[in-house]
Amino acid sequence: MSAGWPSVSDMAQDVASPSIIADTPPEARTGASVDGVNVLGSLSPSRAGDFLSCPLLYRFRTIDKLPEPFSPDAVRGTVVHKILEDLFDLPAAARTPARAGEMLQPAWEVILEQEPEIAEMFGAEGAEIGSWLASCHEALDRYFSLEDPTRLEPAERELYVETVLDSKLLLRGFIDRVDVAPSGAIRVVDYKTGRAPHEAYEAKALFQMRFYALVLWRTRGIVPAMLQLVYLGSGELLRYVPDESDLLATERKVEAIWKAISRARETGDWRPRKSALCGWCAHQALCPEFGGTPPPLPMLAVASMDTPAVTT
Questions:
Q1: Which of 85, 82, 195, 76 is nearest to 129 (CA)?
Q2: Are the beta carbons of 166 and 158 closer than 8 angstroms?
Q3: I want to staple 196 with a disulfide (CB 3.0 to 4.6 A). Which of 64, 72, 204, 236 is the partner?
Q4: How far is it, in rounded angstroms, from Cα 203 to Cα 192?
Q5: Which is it for the CA torsion 189, 232, 208, 115, positive or negative?
């Protein structure tokens, strides 16, 4: 761990502009006025990734808003993220593997109370829940092999960020953690409960982090000094040092994705893209690649096809 990042005894005060922190859900801000600008559309790294992977998946999730079943992997991510967020509410000396383990059952119970149907993942008897909780515990233990939270004081956790580009496209998202060093250098941290990707797929994994870095650069005027992905499934760190050219390229890519989304909205052409990721898709029964038929487009989407495509 770099000694340049904030510690308990030498903690930097975050200087984030209030304009990048929002109390309202990001979905509610889409199409609204942001900082006096009437935005033409909204894009998060997750939805951008959906479109790049498969335009039809983007349509199912964003336009049709089709429900998807809970998965043990996704819920594990929710529970572990919650514990790692709450861990930094404790005094530094209390941020231990044992304490994190004690937080596991209460965190699971809170999420289960909010979404009781999650229990259906484990069958009527819930026989698999013990091994699933053990896998959550393993992910937490791996975290402590990668970072020492007793020496960290994050500037922000679960930070909602947004910025409006010159094209009036709103970029938005939630960052797991932002560290600010005494020098003002920013480190963007994201936790992943899966395994680190093969080297050939690192660029795709880093797109989300470059997206966040772009938003922070546009709002704070500082290029983050480091982007860090913490893979709790394999106990690895993926780090990248961006520069302005990286972020300008990311901005061009985001604009190109939005233009492609706008064309799809105008034409109604949401074609599927078959790949290895299809094995994890919840919508195969509706996908033409698997003999299915997508549902009719919602009327609001059909009406938008009669309007000019958004140009950026």
A1: 76
A2: no
A3: 236
A4: 15
A5: negative
Pick from 293, 303, 298: which is nearest to 64 by CA?
Answer: 298
Coil, strand or helix at 101: helix
Residue 168 Cα to chain centre, angstroms: 22
Q: Token pair for residue 140?
A: 């937490």
pTM (2 decimals)?
A: 0.84
Counting Cβ atoms within 10 Å, is residue 83 exposed (0-12), middle (13-18) or buried (19+)?
buried
Tokens read off for 260? 């492609």
DSSP H/E element including 33: strand 33-34
Cβ atoms of residues 161 and 16 within 8 Å: no
pLDDT digits (tens, 9 = 90+) for 221-245: 999 999 999 999 999 999 999 999 9
Tell me which DSSP letter residue 225 carries: S
- Could you tell me which residues come within 8 angstroms of residue 269 by beta carbon, excluding any fewer than 6 positions away? 55, 263
Burial bucket for residue 161 (CB in 10 Å: 0-12, 13-18, 19+): buried
- The predicted structure's pLDDT at residue 204: 84
What are the boundaries of each domain within the chain? 18-53+153-256, 83-150
Q: How far apart are the first and last CA of the chain?
A: 41
- The residue written with tokens 């050939």 in the block is 200
Q: Which residue, 112, 115, 150, is CA-closest to 8? A: 150
